[in-house]
Design a protein that fits this description.
With 112 residues, the protein is an all-beta fold. The protein has a single domain (2-107), classed as Jelly Rolls. The chain is 0% helix and 54% strand. The protein has no helices and 7 strands. It has strands spanning 2-3, 25-33, 36-43, 57-71, 74-79, 83-86, 92-107. Strands 1, 2, 3, 4, 5, 6 and 7 form a 7-stranded mixed sheet that branches. A hairpin with a 2-residue loop joins strand 4 and strand 5. The radius of gyration is 14 Å and the shape is globular.
Amino acid sequence: METIEMEKEKAFITVEIIEYIANSIVIKTILKKSTGNISVMSVDTGEGLTETTSPFDTFAQVIDGKVELVIGDKLHILKTGESIIIPAHTPNHIRPDGRFKMILTVIKSGYE
């Protein structure tokens, strides 16, 4: 996972800071603090992700494409512009529906 430092007080287009790479999953962390982090992810067609469980709430926002997100045992289909909060301690699995890009924001505060 690559960490990039975005210039403060300068506007940028989030969907453009990460590219699709053939047969790959790319994750760039654009802000990392002790209380949480913000990452941008791109997933190429045919790539899959394993089930994960985080001890923290995660805000997921699709910024390009479409994705199937299973939270617990419930399927959610998200398209460009749609978001969802993945609750802490809940197994989740991202199943791509073609290639997609998303922002993941993890908030650690309140779980000390």
